[in-house]
């Protein structure tokens, strides 16, 4: 009690110094008076007595100063003493101190690091001004809208066809001109790949289309030049772009003279007018772009996706995301009601309605942060799993620190009882224990900060290492998180540190003081309770680590299954790269010529076995699909199939077996090209509203059917028990009668099944078509290391046309690794935490057993003296350790069975209760537990009975 | 022997004084110490102040203002329960210590 009271009185002094001074002066005066009275009694005159009193008293000021010094300095001195004592006690058991500090450091640091990453990715605040007033428009309906074009760029949740956040440009114009509830409404879309020249060699850059009021509505600023404005978005404005800060640094070397320079976007000359501020990345977390360009440029900068011609004017082409800033005082409901009226007028009452009444289309305004989840929604699930693992690790760390401190304090019961008997108050002992805990905590905390800083760096590196673009999140250690995790762990340490002082208050002192009590098992009832608590903590730790281990094991096995999966083609020694001739102004015909020419030159390269190209590389996550009409199917019922346009020799180059029929011949390409050209002409005629031509398709000669190969899945699904080779299929049939030519498809062969876009996805019915235009990815099958050919390949393309940029140069293996990025990251992170959890749990087990052995030294010594075999002693300790580990394992496995079901969606061909994983974890745990037991067990075995009996 | 007495020893002596004589003011304590030491401990009376503060901060003594027989006001110090306990401990320690020192000095 004395210490705390001293602290208290010290604080009182701090605040009531004047009063203390007054009191002191009064006391000194009274003292002098009493002295003087005495001297007077001995016969001195009052004056003499006063002087004598002063003499006897000594220096009055000196006494006062000593009083003051004592008041203020003493408690500091005492704290230093406490601290020194704490350090000495910790130094006495360096193992305990090291383990506790390490546990604290790892617990605090690892958790801070992972929470910082999660915070940056999931809870990041929008880089916009006053984001609460910024809303995103979204729609949902019972059925899919009837659209001519629809594209999304990963800004919001678009998992099904009946809701997303894409709208038409005309609807944006309506919103802008017909409401005044918003202080600004902006449309944006992208990023789109654009040929970017005028800054070194031609390359591909990713440009985001933004309407003129984007910067003002969002509140984004530029650090150089000016933002885009309404005037830049006028149809006749001279093209202007604003660079993204990171692109400006990367591609322009942060040269301030970049502003004002002229560049070429595909075939359009544009001027750089500004550079966005570094804090502005993208409204959607995880997305990034290289530059911003006015929406009106969409017509001129052709991105040959679909209908760029009409994308700005057709109300049935939905491709822009709309954001609005609410006027002050306007509620979301108000704005939503007004916008809904406009939306319904546009989609239900127009000449050609996009929705029918029964579809019940609904327009919703959502806070931007909620609606634009983009990348983070994909990473979120993953991070949640990691967060759970981390939470478990934090719990284990806490249990560990608790167990260690409890075990240690149990050992010190005698020391504490002795001190209490010598007159130390409970609070004084508590303060001493607290000082020790605080020394541990601050050291552990300091280590935790180091681990956190390093961990954030390592995690960022780990996460971004597999990405094909710059890591889009800005991550820094989060000090609030550090404070939180630190607080939780430290509170555990301090509470446990104080526990023995509560116990000693309750306990009778005498049994603790009796020498032998601590040495006789079960001799003290309080000992029994204490050990049981320690046991429970160790069992809990083991159980938690089993859960984390099982989770990690399942993820590791998923990755392994995916990595060793046979995708149906030879993935080794293939070089891939993309090429986009239409960005340099090529027509379809010219494109085909270029591809053919390049293919020949590549095949002539020494080291190249064969070369081909396709619309998308296999396993690149991109894919296309189309509806076809089977000839004997009822009208208007279409069959859906994945499609891939390929070049000559594709199947030979990728080593995909052709099981029946034949591969494509040059004649197939000529015929497909002719059909394609005829279709394009007919579509253009229909779109330009020339009914004369469109209304009489029968008068035109019908173009030849497109020759196609189908895969086995297609044959099985649509031609069960039949030979599809030689069969015809019609074009997709829609509600309205078809207008243009309907050439259909002719099946010429069956290819073996292969994975297409993703390894995880089941093999879909797929149709291979001859590639007659479009961008393409080349595939070069090489004899040796494919990367050795990159330079020659670049030279060949540059020779053919210097304006055609190469992009995404990688090998097929790298491509696959890239698609497995998330799985790899997950398995690495979870393994890391699982191992951490296992280590902590084993430290816990080791700590408990070591303490047990130390506590029972005397008993074990007696047993040895009485003739017990050393091996028996070892078995005694190991059996106890294994029992605890097994108990933990059983609880952990039961818990894991309940928990892993939740992560089923992340697994691939591994069941959530995969017996191999569970068994593996069990065996690993037993082995590690044995290792953890073996050190204390060996110590028990080596106990010398003589020393043991003298021990206490 | 002057003011240069071992720290802690003075505390012990004051506690002992308060335990045997009951509540005392600083002057009373100083007088008692002088008397017991038969004037050998000729310390300035002001030097006991730090010890008084220390004991009070430890919670071993409690101070309150009161009146002397001559109706003079004075601050009285009384020993607390914790103080009595501490006195026991300190006494034991002192005995042990002085016994040891005595033995050491006896061995010539």
Give an account of the 3D structure.
The complex is a heterodimer of chains A (952) and B (108). Chain A is an alpha+beta fold and 952 residues long. Chain A folds into four domains: 2-75, no CATH class; 131-371, no CATH class; 377-564 and 822-950, no CATH class; 581-804, no CATH class. Chain A contains 28 helices and 24 strands. In chain A, the strands form four sheets. Chain A has a six-stranded mixed barrel. In chain A, strands 16-17-22-19-21-20 form a six-stranded mixed barrel. In chain A, strands 15-23-14-24 form a four-stranded antiparallel sheet. The longest helix of chain A is centred in the middle third of the chain and has 40 residues, at 426-465. Chain A is globular. The two termini of chain A are 30 Å apart. Chain B is of the alpha+beta class and 108 residues long. Chain B has one domain (9-106): Winged helix-like DNA-binding domain superfamily/Winged helix DNA-binding domain (Arc Repressor Mutant, subunit A, Orthogonal Bundle), CATH 1.10.10. Chain B has four helices and three strands, in the order αβααββα. In chain B, strands 1-3-2 form a three-stranded antiparallel sheet. In chain B, helix 1 (9-21) crosses helix 4 (81-106). At the A-B interface, helix 1, helix 2 and helix 4 of A face helix 2, helix 3, strand 3 and helix 4 of B.
